[in-house]
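TA notes, week 10

Several of you asked for a full example with nothing omitted. So below is the full record: structure tokens for the whole chain, then the designed sequence directly under it. When grading your own attempts, check the secondary structure regions first.
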């Protein structure tokens, strides 16, 4: 007698971004830049920046995103047996953001831990949960991608401060035996390329208009031009790997949810994958780059806008510090 192996299905999505909007015009008063320059180089018009006055911490955004995903899924805290969070800007070095979420939700049956994979954090976390469900060690899990990148921004560096922002999203994943769901996940890394995107000690003072914000004792550094080329290369290769693994072509993909780093990177990926931009969901213009938060935020928006139908094939793909890159193909279950 054979038993069909369980597969992991996304059954709920949720997201949360801070209330405060920081526009390109606002940035003109902080650093030597312009609205036209930012739009042309990145595709970003505005981004969300957290505030201590509103309690928009990393954990707070993650908790709200999780509650919205759980509400959609019809899942209670006691149903969760795993919570995995992708983040590099947790509120404390330890305990993990995942343990803070577990405590807030009273999810006492769940094992909880963080994953550090830069902007790939959400997909690395999704891969971890997918494998746990396939192995039978988890049945229902919460996967979160959340960042407060404003806390690690050097606000005098126009090459990075115009890109980065805050926000997070979550999905509820559960085990089913009827096929579909997460078809495969793929993760890769190359530590020899770490100098393209990394954290360095120290941070400058905050601009006056952002004084109600926490700062980490380090800041982000990026080799933009070199990273740009690698990003397109890695997004393309890992996406092709996912499609090949599932015997799919670009035509089979219903919608692409890419990491929202730069519109020119997304356009380059679109070209090399031969997937038209009409099939690629972009909200970069409104939220900027929220690192591991970009994919779950975009996935939640696309889902709630009715852009993903049951049975659709969804390609998610990201790259980030490490360097890391990742992809996943999901046959939509909602």
């Amino acid at each position: 007698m054979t038993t069909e192996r369980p597969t992991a299905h996304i059954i709920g999505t949720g997201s949360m971004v801070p209330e405060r909007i920081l526009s390109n015009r606002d940035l003109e008063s902080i650093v030597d830049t312009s609205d036209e320059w930012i739009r042309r180089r990145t595709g970003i018009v505005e981004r969300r920046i957290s505030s201590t006055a509103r309690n928009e911490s990393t954990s707070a955004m993650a908790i709200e995103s999780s509650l919205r995903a759980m509400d959609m899924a019809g899942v209670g805290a006691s149903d969760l047996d795993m919570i995995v969070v992708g983040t590099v800007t947790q509120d404390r070095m330890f305990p993990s953001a995942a343990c803070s979420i577990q405590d807030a939700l009273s999810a006492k049956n769940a094992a909880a831990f963080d994953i550090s994979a830069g902007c790939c954090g959400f997909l690395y976390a999704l891969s971890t949960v997918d494998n746990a469900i396939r192995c039978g060690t988890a049945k229902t899990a919460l996967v979160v991608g959340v960042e407060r990148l404003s806390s690690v921004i050097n606000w005098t560096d126009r090459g990075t401060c115009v890109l980065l922002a805050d926000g997070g999203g979550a999905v509820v994943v559960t085990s089913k035996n009827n096929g579909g769901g997460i078809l495969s996940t793929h993760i890769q890394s190359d530590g020899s390329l770490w100098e393209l995107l990394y954290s360095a000690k120290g941070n400058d003072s905050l601009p006056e208009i952002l004084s109600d914000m926490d700062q980490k004792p380090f800041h982000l550094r990026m080799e933009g031009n070199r990273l740009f080329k690698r990003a397109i290369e890695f997004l393309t290769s890992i996406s092709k790997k996912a499609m090949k693994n599932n015997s799919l072509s670009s035509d089979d993909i219903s919608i692409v949810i890419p990491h929202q780093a730069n519109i020119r990177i997304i356009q380059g990926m679109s070209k090399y994958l031969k997937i038209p931009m009409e099939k690629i969901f972009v909200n970069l213009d409104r939220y900027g780059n929220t690192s591991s938060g970009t994919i779950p935020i975009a996935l939640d928006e696309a889902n709630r806008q009715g852009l993903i139908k049951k049975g659709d094939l969804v390609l998610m793909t990201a790259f980030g510090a490490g360097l890391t890159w990742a992809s996943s193909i999901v046959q939509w279950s909602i």
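The first helix runs from residue 24 to 28. Use that as a sanity check on your answer.
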